[in-house]
Amino acid sequence: MNKKHIAALVALAFTAALLVFLTGSLGGRKSLLAQTLSAAGSKAGSITQAENQALSAPRQLRAVWIATAWNIDWPSSQGLSAAKQQQEFIAMLDEAKNVGMNAVIVQVKPNADSLYPSEYGPWSDVLTGKQGQSPGYDPLAFMIEEAHKRNLEFHAWFNPYRIGKTKDTAKLAADHPALKHPDWVAVYAGTRYYNPGIPEVRDFVVAGISEVVKKYDIDAVHLDDYFYPYPEKGKDFPDDSAYQKYRKSEFGSKPNWRRDNVNRLVEAIHAAIKKEKPYVKFGISPFGVWRNQNADPTGSETTAGTTNYDTLFADTRAWINAGWVDYIAPQLYWNFGFKPAAYDKLADWWIKETEGKPVQLYIGHAPFKIGQHEPPGWQNPDELPDQLKFNARSAGKISGSILFSLKDIRRNPLGFRDRLNTELYASPALVPPMPWLGSAAPQPPKALTAEGTADGVRLDWRDGGGNPAYYAVYRAEGSGSEAARLVGTVRSGGSGAQSFTDRAAPAGKPLRYVVTALDRLHNESTTSRTASADVPGRFAKAK
């Protein structure tokens, strides 16, 4: 039997193999698609039959917060040139991509000001050093474009009420809405806030978010844990006049009224987003504890001094049950074994809180704590990696993680960045779909070719239709029956012709490739036909 016959038999054996169920790296949920594709020639290096080809790709949101308030992450300082700001942001996106992220959550309204031209707040001083002064370009448009080039989801992060420190009042832009509407403002613990109890404030906040949803190609609107401020001992938020004016008899108490104010805001933001662009997600990352069990038997086994419901007036349970959020990402910034709020106990509580409901559960993690002396658990280099592995063992009940913040990842505390790159997020992941937002997938790519080059294996294909946002590239190695694993994603160029070079393709093995198309909600098509590149320099063409 000559070499050509042997190669042909190897190809046929590979393509006739049974579906193999494999999960992706870090234990992500299965994404295994069985496809029936037409047979082609029997020569090695041609398009082969790919009947029942299994695909293996973890489905996880892997996101990082990029904070702009007080220049925490970006820009590195105020007053940088536009070119320097852009250079820094591109480097941050490249870093996020290099450590396996598939989404960035960027603070676009840090202190009732904006990183884009807005009718609802002046230019932010984090850009130029002077609030109200244009940086000479539109940072938000730039950031979205660059994120999408790298196939990173862009979540626009808003702080709805915080205006800034009272000591900085003189620095407010002359046209700042807080100066135009001083009756909207409450001062608490040295900080100015828009008063959440005033209906006009709520309408103003919703309109400001709607402005961004309408004008920009964002993937999600994101709020964090700042609604009513964290309490200062012995001081109550100064909203008596608003309470007397706007309370209703059914509330029964000021805490109930405050919770209703936040609920109304969340409901209104959700409605405004879905009215404008139903596919744009809405997510909130609240404080990690809803209520302690000693206050409510359905609360968590914690003794936290602060809770969402009782001290921050953020009723996360109400939002989840009402379907107002597409994802919830509690900030579980505590270690395993931390008695007041242990990581595993809280993660399990949130799983039960969200299970079976049209909402995805992500966990907010604290790289900024790694290496701290107190509590001692954060001196353990395995603490945060073990949290990510705990999430992975949830069988998809925890759909991903968000890390605060990119600056802390970049400093590589106790080798955490290295472990993301080489172990935890070493293989790429696809963002989980949200079927309640839409489930129709694009058509599969057409005319896939694979060619070995000096740089790796170059793949070319054509768009199959259905307005794909990006493509997933899968590779199977050798001649066995293993699943084809995700090796990369590439954003749609919009021209119909697409390409990708697999620079990590191993030499000396028969390689099989398939490509799928995904929409912006991450609904995945069936596969393209299979292309093979068994040795560098050979290629296969699809018919």
From TrEMBL:
Superkingdom of this protein's organism: Bacteria
Q: Does the keyword Signal apply?
A: yes
Q: Which UniProt keywords apply?
A: Hydrolase, Signal
A molecular function (GO) held by this record is: hydrolase activity
| Region called Disordered, residue ranges | 524-543
Annotated TM spans:
none
Q: Which InterPro entries match?
A: Divisome_Glycosyl_Hydrolase, FN3_dom, GH, GHL10, Ig-like_fold
Q: Which Pfam families match?
A: GHL10
- In this chain the Fibronectin type-III domain maps to 441-538
Name of the featured protein: Family 10 glycosylhydrolase
Supply the source organism's classification: Bacteria, Bacillati, Bacillota, Bacilli, Bacillales
